[in-house]
TrEMBL record:
It is a multi-pass membrane protein. One of its GO terms (molecular function) is lipid-linked peptidoglycan transporter activity. GO terms for cellular component: cell division site; plasma membrane. This is Probable peptidoglycan glycosyltransferase FtsW. Pathway: Cell wall biogenesis; peptidoglycan biosynthesis. Pfam families: FTSW_RODA_SPOVE. It is found in: Cell membrane. Belongs to the SEDS family. FtsW subfamily. The chain crosses the membrane at residues 23-41, 61-81, 87-105, 155-180, 192-213, 276-296, 308-330, 342-363.
C-alpha cells in the first residue's frame, strides 16, 4: 500500500488515502482476536457433536475472510451506492425474515434461520444494518424537506420489522433495533413530546413481553431472583472469569468451553476470561471502545444528515450488541442469545457486521469532493 502515491487517481489509491486507516487496523485486530478465540472455544463443541476437531474454526476462518473482503469492498463505495444497496438489502431481508416464519428451521422454540444446504442464514442479522441505512435516508429526507413524511414511513417499516422479529420470537433483536431507531429519531430532531411517547411505548412493549412471552418472563425472573430457575450457564461463565484471574489459565486450558454448549457463540467472552485473563478481556473491551469512539470522532466534522444518522446507527448497533453480550456474560443483564461482534462463531453475524462496518468506513472517508458529488444536490439523488 505504501507504493500508492497521493497523485495516483486509481480507485484503490483514492480509497487508501481517504479511508480511516487507524479504524481499519483496529477492526482487523478485533477480527484476528476473534479467530484466535474461535479456534480454542469451538473444538470441544465439535468433539461433542462428533465432528472434525477444527470444523467450526475452519468455517469461521472462511466467514472471516469473506467478511474482510465484504468490508473492504463496501468501503470502496460512494455514499449514494451505500444508500441504494442498503435499501435493496432491507427489502430482501424483510422477505427472508417472513420466509423464516413459514419454512424456517426451528431451534429452541424459535424460527430465525433458513437452511441453505450445509449452511444456515439468519436474515434478521442483515435486517438490522439495512434498516438503519433506510431509516437514516428517510429521516434525512424529512430534515431537508419538511413536507416529506420520512419519519412516518420509517415508523411503519419499524413496526413491520419489529412485528416479524417478535413473531420468530426474538425480543433481544427487537429491543436492539428499537433502541437504535429511537436514537436516530432523536438525532434527527424529534420533538421532546414524541421522545417521551417513544420512551413510554418502549416501556409498555417490554412490560407486555414480560407478561405474555414465557421465556422472557423466565429470563427476567432468573436475573432478579436466581433462585427462581436454572442459572447454570451464567454461574458457569462467572466461575470461568474467577478461574482465569488476571492472566488466565493459558490457551486451551479452559474448562468452561467443555461444559457450555454455546461457549463458541454466546459465551465466548467467558472463554477469553478463563484462558487469557482479565487483562485480555480489557484489551478486547478497549478495541470495541476504540472502534466506537474513533467512528464517532469522524462525525464531528460532518454536516451531512444522512451520513451522521447512518454512521451513528451502525456504530450503535456494533457497540450495543457487544455491550449486551458482555453484560450477559458478566451477569449484568438478563440472558440473551446475542453474538459478540467479530468474536463469536456465526456466518450470518460475521457477514452482516463486516458489511455494516464497511459502510462505516465508506461513509467516514475523508474525500469531501467525492462525498458531495456522489450525493448530488440532495439526499434524493
Amino acid at each position: 500500500m505504501t507504493l500508492l502515491s497521493r497523485a495516483d487517481e486509481s480507485l484503490l489509491a483514492r480509497w487508501w488515502w481517504t479511508v480511516d486507516r487507524k479504524l481499519l487496523f483496529i477492526l482487523l485486530s478485533l477480527l484476528s482476536a476473534g479467530l484466535i478465540l474461535s479456534f480454542g472455544a469451538s473444538t470441544p463443541v465439535a468433539e461433542r457433536l462428533h465432528l472434525p476437531i477444527f470444523y467450526f474454526a475452519k468455517r469461521q476462518l472462511v466467514f472471516l475472510l469473506a467478511g474482510i473482503a465484504i468490508m473492504i469492498g463496501v468501503s470502496l463505495l460512494s455514499p449514494r451506492m451505500i444508500r441504494r444497496t442498503g435499501i435493496i438489502m432491507f427489502f430482501i431481508s424483510l422477505i427472508l425474515v417472513m420466509l423464516t416464519l413459514i419454512m424456517g428451521a426451528e431451534y429452541n422454540g424459535a424460527k430465525r434461520w433458513i437452511s441453505l444446504g450445509s449452511l444456515s442464514l439468519q436474515p434478521s442479522e442483515f435486517l438490522k444494518p439495512s434498516f438503519i441505512i433506510l431509516s437514516a435516508w428517510l429521516c434525512a429526507g424529512a430534515m431537508n424537506d419538511q413536507s416529506f413524511p420520512g419519519r412516518r414511513i420509517a415508523l411503519g417499516l419499524f413496526i413491520l420489522s419489529a412485528g416479524l422479529l417478535v413473531a420468530q420470537p426474538d425480543m433481544g433483536q427487537t429491543v436492539l433495533l428499537g433502541l437504535i431507531w429511537s436514537m436516530q429519531l432523536v438525532l434527527a430532531g424529534l420533538p421532546l413530546f414524541w421522545i417521551g411517547l417513544l420512551i413510554l411505548g418502549g416501556c409498555a412493549g417490554l412490560a407486555l413481553a414480560y407478561l405474555l412471552i414465557p421465556h422472557v418472563t423466565s429470563r427476567i425472573d432468573r436475573f432478579f431472583n436466581p433462585a427462581s430457575g436454572d442459572t447454570y450457564q451464567i454461574d458457569t461463565a462467572l466461575n470461568a472469569f474467577r478461574a482465569g484471574g488476571l492472566f488466565g489459565r493459558g490457551p486451551g486450558e479452559g474448562a468452561v468451553k467443555k461444559v457450555l454448549p454455546d461457549a463458541h457463540t454466546d459465551y465466548i467472552f467467558a472463554v477469553a476470561g478463563e484462558e487469557f485473563g482479565t487483562f485480555a478481556c480489557l484489551i478486547i473491551l478497549g478495541l470495541f471502545s476504540a472502534i466506537v469512539l474513533r467512528s464517532l470522532m469522524r462525525l464531528t466534522e460532518e454536516d451531512d444528515p444522512f451520513t451522521i444518522l447512518a454512521v451513528s446507527g451502525l456504530i450503535a448497533l456494533f457497540g450495543l450488541q457487544a455491550m449486551i453480550n458482555i453484560g450477559v456474560n458478566l451477569a449484568l443483564l438478563p440472558a440473551k442469545g446475542m453474538t459478540l461482534p467479530f468474536i463469536s462463531y456465526g456466518g450470518s453475524s460475521m457477514l452482516a457486521l463486516t458489511w455494516g462496518m464497511g459502510m462505516v468506513l465508506a461513509l467516514t472517508r475523508q474525500n469531501r469532493f467525492e462525498r458531495r458529488s456522489s450525493l448530488g444536490p440532495g439526499v434524493w439523488t
